[in-house]
Design a protein that fits this description.
The structure is a homodimer.
Chain A: E1 6-13, H1 15-18, H2 26-36, E2 39-47, H3 51-61, E3 67-71, H4 82-90, E4 94-96, H5 98-112, H6 115-119, E5 122-124, E6 128-130, E7 139-142, E8 145-148, H7 152-162, E9 173-179, H8 187-196, E10 201-209, E11 212-221, H9 224-241
Chain lengths: 251, 251
């Protein structure tokens, strides 16, 4: 029987994200993709290129969620330690995977293949390859952990391969009610709506739009009827609040 | 005596980041700011608006790093549960802070102040306020945990207040050597450079720049002399690799 809810965690691996040198673009992309697949991303961690940190993060989340995705650290250089770290997290060996070796030999040819590039064919025992059409160097899957590249284009190519094979939950439907009023003028009504519809997640996200302030009220639920009932209640809360001077600024 | 290394963790709080609805802009900004302050960001977590998740994340990192920063969940609506969660993480009570009450009364006046907005004055016992000039609703500091807003402009205003008071480490100096060659042609030389300079962190970050591929080799060390020695070695590795056909694509 299909599960109602399928969950995931994401681990972004790389010193460069923590130092600010690289601005991560994978979190938002993966979050959107998983939401589109009706898989709920429940937790994200960003960790450094340190084996113990990667091992700890993988082991902390892989038992808690249906899927774990990682990005980064699977290239040919000495600072690419994700494959070894994932092998260690699972307590398995790591060796050259014949199919990965073949992919890299085809990609680079005899002239360019070398020991460093061949490192990208080292896959934890039992791992299944995740091919990609951009760099050809594969990611891999061990149990419920999907190990992908850090370069967004390459990661996206891998996610395209992985996505169709993932189990999906029942979609979380979403409705947004914009309000041009301070959140504080909506809060009491929203709290009552949330109490009445505990099965609908109601969130308030303040925005500024060209000097005009307001808040998007986002409702999420797997049942369309309940969602639309709650939406009607929230619309009344927003209408009753009108617009206020407070909407000249936040909250 | 000043510490050589000051460390930090960051917790981004909010369902909307995990769903992809909001694309986080705080991680990169805070990472850059901390690097500029010679504070090393070692770990980031993104967690949902769920009390247990926030409590667990705060308690997992607050003993491991010198500072913890959080963003999100301190507004006036029912889904803003960060203050209560942080109080719970520390096992302390939470109540209206007189200075926060005064700030909010001044900001909103009698006409606009209400119970919801007053919620933003609830601060865990022992907490010190972090004022901000954008929304006036304060963040707060409990022990080594700095609780800030999720709206980037407001968070940045709070970080401006906090930054001058933070202890700083010895700056991590950074040099970048660009290479227009596949990483795989540099990897052996870089690994040898890393072995020779274990005190210099050497990372390789592939890029694509208008169809031209290459990799930025980033060296980081607190000692300028060692850094520049390692840089010279890396420059030779890059020069010896020349440019290769592989630079037409990744790795």
């Amino acid at each position: 029987m299909a599960k109602d809810t399928v969950t995931a965690a994401l681990i972004l691996i790389g010193d460069e994200i923590l130092s600010g040198r690289t601005k991560d673009k994978n979190l938002g992309y993966i979050a959107d993709t998983l939401t589109g697949l009706a898989i709920e991303l429940r937790e994200v961690r960003v960790v450094a290129d340190i084996e113990a940190d990667i091992v700890d993060a993988v082991n902390a989340v892989r038992g808690r969620y249906d899927y774990v995705f990682t990005t980064g650290g699977i290239g040919p250089t000495h600072d690419d330690i994700t494959a070894d770290s994932v092998a260690k997290a699972f307590g398995v060996g790591i060796d050259f995977h014949p199919d990965a070796v073949a992919m890299l030999r085809e990609r680079y040819g005899d002239a360019e293949i070398n020991e460093a590039r061949m490192r990208m064919a080292r896959i934890p025992d039992g791992g299944e390859l995740i091919p990609n059409s951009v760099s050809w160097a594969p990611g891999f899957k061990v149990d419920n952990v999907f190990v992908m590249a850090g370069v967004p284009k390459i990661m996206q190519s891998m996610l395209d391969v992985v996505a169709p094979k993932l189990e999906r939950g029942k979609p979380l439907l979403s409705e947004t009610v914009p309000a041009y009023v301070g959140e504080g003028d909506l809060a009491a009504g929203l709290a009552r709506a949330q109490d009445t519809y505990p099965d609908v997640a109601i969130g308030s996200y303040p925005f500024e739009d060209g000097g005009r302030y307001g808040s998007n009220i986002v409702l999420r639920c797997k049942d369309r009827e309940r969602l639309m009932q709650a939406r009607a209640v929230v619309e009344k809360v927003v209408a009753d609040a009108g617009t206020s001077d407070t909407a000249k600024a936040w909250s």
